[in-house]
Amino acid sequence: MRVSVPATSANMGPGFDTLGVALQIKNQVVIKPAKFHSVSLKGEGSNNPALKDNNMFISIFNDFYHNLSNRRRNFRFEFYNEIPMSRGLGSSSAVIVSAIASAYAIEGIELEKSKLLNLALAYENHPDNITPAVMGGFNVATVQENEVKFIKKEIPKHLKAIVVIPNRPISTHLSRKTLPYKYSKDDAVFNISHSSLLTAAFMSENWEMLRVASYDKFHQKYRMKQMPELFEVQKAALNNGALMSTLSGSGSTFFSMSYADDSKRIERELRIKFPHFKIFSTDFDNYGVKVDR
């Protein structure tokens, strides 16, 4: 059995803790019944042996599997990770979603995506991350009475994501601590209006509106000060034709969106300017978590 979950880019400028989109960068896990417990890890994180012993996936999987089956079995877990860890691309959400989906699938129990989404909420309380990981596409999401409420929009094939992954992380915990305790009324109105405009632009496919709509006053400038070159990444992406360019999650990755015809040129210009960063373009994912038995 194979379970795959896409990477996500959350916040998307003014959509703090609200807006997120899924990317064609995936973590996959293959699970097989076995005589003994074993773990193999390839791709992102494979140079960290501690991940095999202190594996959040296996802990969550075992909790759900034991509750569903009321028995213990040994499995071989084979992880193939494409999502960089601690770079603001939803690696934790991918682990949580894939672990829960795997436990249900290995027992042959059908699990609706809406239920999976709300089960994942117990481990990750940011709906802008877990919703696109489960559903794919662009999502507007909030939590009300411990339940995720969302609307999804699929992203057309003629659009691409350009991902700039710096060579060092930004601490999510420290990143949150840099944010103001209070915001002015003017800044609150600015972000509400821009987040609303950004959402309307996605839903109506008014891509030219994204540039104006994606400005933010709540979090990006505070977080980006921890890595000032990110201001130059954003400026370079927009100057070379990106439709929008925003910090991905709490960073340090920067997410840009463009027409497919422009993506390779923008990618090339960014690589010239930032040779020490990992930079590539990718499709969007419109499906979310996928289980193949």
Automatic annotation (TrEMBL):
Principal place of residence: cytoplasm
Q: Does the keyword Lyase apply?
A: no
Localization: Cytoplasm
Print the keywords alphabetically.
Answer: Amino-acid biosynthesis, ATP-binding, Cytoplasm, Kinase, Nucleotide-binding, Threonine biosynthesis, Transferase
- Cellular component, GO annotation: cytoplasm
Residue limits of the GHMP kinase C-terminal domain?
202-275
Q: InterPro entries from the entry?
A: GHMP_kinase_C_dom, GHMP_kinase_C_sf, GHMP_kinase_N_dom, GHMP_knse_ATP-bd_CS, Homoserine_kinase, Ribosomal_Su5_D2-typ_SF, Ribsml_uS5_D2-typ_fold_subgr
Report the catalytic activity.
Answer: L-homoserine + ATP = O-phospho-L-homoserine + ADP + H(+)
Q: Please name the PANTHER family in this protein's record.
A: HOMOSERINE KINASE (PTHR20861:SF1), HOMOSERINE/4-DIPHOSPHOCYTIDYL-2-C-METHYL-D-ERYTHRITOL KINASE (PTHR20861)
Give the protein's function. Answer: Catalyzes the ATP-dependent phosphorylation of L-homoserine to L-homoserine phosphate.
Q: Which family does it belong to?
A: Belongs to the GHMP kinase family. Homoserine kinase subfamily.
Protein's name according to its UniProt entry: Homoserine kinase
Q: What is the lineage of its organism?
A: Bacteria, Pseudomonadati, Campylobacterota, Epsilonproteobacteria, Campylobacterales
